[in-house]
Amino acid sequence: MRIVSTGMVTAVGATAPASCAAIAAGIAGFVEIPATDGGGFPITGALARHAVPRKLGFPLLLGLLALTVEEALGDARADGIPVLAALSPPDQAGRPLGLDEAILFALAERLRMQLHGDSRVFAAGSTGALRALAHARSLLAAGRARACLVAGVDSLTGMDCLDQLDADERLKTTGNPDGLIPGEAAACLMVAAAGPRPPPDAVLIRGIGFAHEPVGIKDERPILGVGLAAAINAALADAGLTMADVDYRIADVTGERYGMNEANYALGRTLKMRKLHFDFLHLGDCIGAIGAASGAAMLGYLKYLFDRGRSPHPGALCHCSSDTGDRAAAIVTGPMKE
C-alpha cells in the first residue's frame, strides 16, 4: 500500500508542507493557553485552531478534519473513496457527545461529497490511524475502493480534558516535568494499492502489526515494552522484513517517562543486532500530544522526508501507543536520499 498524498493541520502549520517543514526545522508551536492547572499556573499547549478561528468542541474537530481531507484529496474526485477516521477513545474527558455518529456525515456535508458506504470511524486514540490503515488495505485488496482517505483528528486542549490530565498528574507544568504538552491537530493520508511494480519514488506501508500492553500508565508495575515489541514484531512479519531493514523510528511519545521507557524497552526486545545509528524521531516536541491525529501525522511526516530526499535511511519504523493498552506499529519504506 502506498501513500499518495497527505493533509495536515497542526500548531505550526495549516497545511502538510508547512507543518512538516516547521517540524523538520525544530520549530515548536507552544503557547500559554487560557487555562490554569490545579496550582494556578498557566498551562502550555499547542493549538491548531488558528486554521478554524472561534471554533471549539465538535466544530473545531470537524473544521480541522475537513481541511486535511480536502488537502489530501487535492483535485481527485471523492466518490469511490472511503473516509476512515481515527478519533479519541470513548472515555476521553470532554469528548463531544455523538462524535462517532455525526462527524463523517458532517464532513460529507461540509465538503459536499457523497459519503462512501465503507466509511467508518476508529475510536482508538493514538493507534486509530494504523487500525484504519489495516482496514483500508483490506478494502483495497477486495476491490471495494480505488483509494482510501485515512485521517485522524483530536484535541487535548478542552477544559474537561485538561482538568482530567491535571488530576492524573499527566500535564507538563512547573511542578511536574514528567508530563505532556496538550495539543490539537488533524492529519490525513490518501492511500492506494501499491500494485506489482510501484514507482521507484513511492512511499510504501509494507507491514502493520498490533498487540496489547497490559501495564497501563497508572499501573504501579514497571512498563517493559512487551506489548509494543509484539506489535513491532507483527509488523515486521507482515512486511516480510527484519530489523536489519529498518534504520530509524518515529513514535508518538509525548515527554512522559512511561512512553519513553516503553519505546526504549521495546527497541531492546526487537533490535538484536549492532547498528551504529538508529535515529529516534518524534513530533511531540513541536506540536504537543495530539492523540488520535498522531498516527496519520507521523506517516505524513515520513512521506515528507522521503519525498524531499531528507530521510536518513530507506526503512522506518512507526509505532503508536493508546491509553487503552492498544499498541500498533508500521514498517515504511521509501527512496533513499542521494
UniProtKB/TrEMBL annotation:
E.C. code: 2.3.1.41
UniProt GO molecular function: 3-oxoacyl-[acyl-carrier-protein] synthase activity
Domain of life where this protein originates: Bacteria
Annotated transmembrane regions: 280-302
Record keywords, A-Z: Acyltransferase, Membrane, Transferase, Transmembrane, Transmembrane helix
Keyword Transferase in record: yes
Keyword Transmembrane: yes
Stored InterPro entries: Thiolase-like
Top-tier EC class: transferase
UniProt protein name: 3-oxoacyl-(Acyl carrier protein) synthase
Species: Candidatus Defluviicoccus seviourii
